[in-house]
Amino acid sequence: MLNCVVIGAGPAGLACTKELVENGLEDVVCVDRAPALGGVFINTYDNLILTSSVYYSVFSDFWSGDIRHQDVANGGRHFWRKAEAVQYWTDYANHYNITDRLKFNSGVDQVTETEDGWEVTLETGEVLETERIAVATGTNRRPSYPEWAKELTDIPYSHVETYRNNEGFENKNVLMVGGGESGSDVAYEISKVAANSWVSLRTSAGWIVPRVRRGMATDVSTHRGVWGLPREYGERLGRQLRKHDRSTENPVNLEAEKLNRKVAAKNGIWGTYGTKSYALPTAVANHDCKVVTEIAEVHDGGRKLVTASGEVLTDVDAVVFSTGYHSSSDEFLPEKYHNIDPRSMFKHSIHPKFGDKIAWIGRARPNFGSQFPLMEMQSRLFAQVASGKMPLVDQKTMQTSIAEDLKANLDQFENNAERIRSLVDYYRYMDGTADVLGCKPPLTKYFFTNPKLWRHLVYGPTQATQYRLVGRGAKPTLAKEIIYQLPVSTFNPVVKAGLRGRLVQLLERPKTLLAR
């Protein structure tokens, strides 16, 4: 009998497989319907560029030599194209000797619960008996459409899932629905060739930031020096960043500022998800793309559309939906495991009712930062428990943690947390899971004993390697080698805003003490 079957060979499945094997579980197999590793990333649009920089996208303990040449100073890029990401994951699998454990062209037909564990029946007819399963199939499985899509009877419509490039949209009148990162990229590409283009937003496009600012990956500024502030400071931080964008008088920055004004969350930039791409404001500023409100009426089979604010779009030729995906129902699992709400699970991964016999990897989406560190942290937690190196947290403690995380996320993200069940605060999630594993970096200690390391930890990108310095799974020598190669944020507008926030905290603390 196998120790574990990992379902899905995308980055989540690879991280989980590697962690299980590294922690002593030798009989591990990772299965995937696709012919090669990479998950959803191998079937995306042609010009996909990751929105998290290489500094965040790398796993904690594998610093590919090629990445050193991604620095702009060395003539490279900060961000991977999809082929580069897949190559990195391929190198990672080879480095940690898990390639032979990957079974491709092996989709899962059915999973049956047994007295001793599970039977995983593959589409090939092969049956795998295993003690545990890890579901790493992601959330991008069933495209979601608004109700009015069914009224589009006279024009073609599609989902970003099947979009590859802007061929076929030349000189057409095209509506794009949704302004997240993929939606922004699609809007930019189509607006370059369309006769008329519109983007329909229900509320906002999240908080828009560029991939690169002043020659450096913007997410380098996603560090503890700023993101360590209370979340209610996000509204003030957002105002300062919008003010900076207005002051540049750059047309693209000005359009980004207008779009960010649409964010109505009480916590501003920290009350929504990040859209780490300037594709949409560039489409508006440079290619005459129009931003409209949500569609309220459909006429003439879609040829005429009316928005909630009364705008009329006529002679529409096509609609492209970037409206996300339904939560994965995991149809191949027994019915009681269908439609498990990520917010009902311990760290969005382990359900209190089911213990460590099943884990979901990759069901947490960060507001900023990157999804890859979250996948890896979930994998580390599951592997520690599955290997017996760490006991599973008792049900009462898990339930308390789940309730606390639920309240914190609902308070911070409001309706966004209700709508996007996987949405979490990157820092709270990473540090919270690190507390369970005992691998949270001791910042106060390093401030006095290793100021250089402290500076990198506080003003460098808070990516996964920070959590390899101490605790379970620690690799301190390798971790320091990687961390010292990461850039440290310049004295940019985000850092300045963070310092102002620290000053505000110091000034307001006496008021808080007096109020008590």
Features:
16% strand; 516 residues; disordered C terminus; 7-stranded mixed β-sheet; 5-stranded parallel β-sheet; alpha/beta
General form: globular
- Going by helix content, strand content and strand pairing, the class is alpha/beta
Q: Give the DSSP E fraction (strand runs of 2 or more residues).
A: 15-25%
Tell me how many strands there are: 23
Main sheet? Answer: 7 strands, mixed
Q: Number of helical runs?
A: 16
Rg, Cα atoms, Å = 23 Å
Unreliable parts: 72-76, 512-516
Mean pLDDT: 92
**N→C terminal distance:** 60 Å
Q: Estimate percent helicity.
A: 25-40%
Describe the structure.
The protein has 516 residues and is an alpha/beta fold. It is 34% helix and 16% strand. The chain is built from 16 helices and 23 strands. The strands form seven sheets. Strands 1, 2, 3, 4, 5, 6 and 21 form a seven-stranded mixed beta sheet that branches. It has a five-stranded parallel beta sheet with strand order 8-19-9-10-15, with helices on one face. Helix 6 (234-248) packs antiparallel against helix 16, helix 9 (371-386) runs parallel beside helix 12 and helix 13 packs across helix 14 (451-459). It is globular.
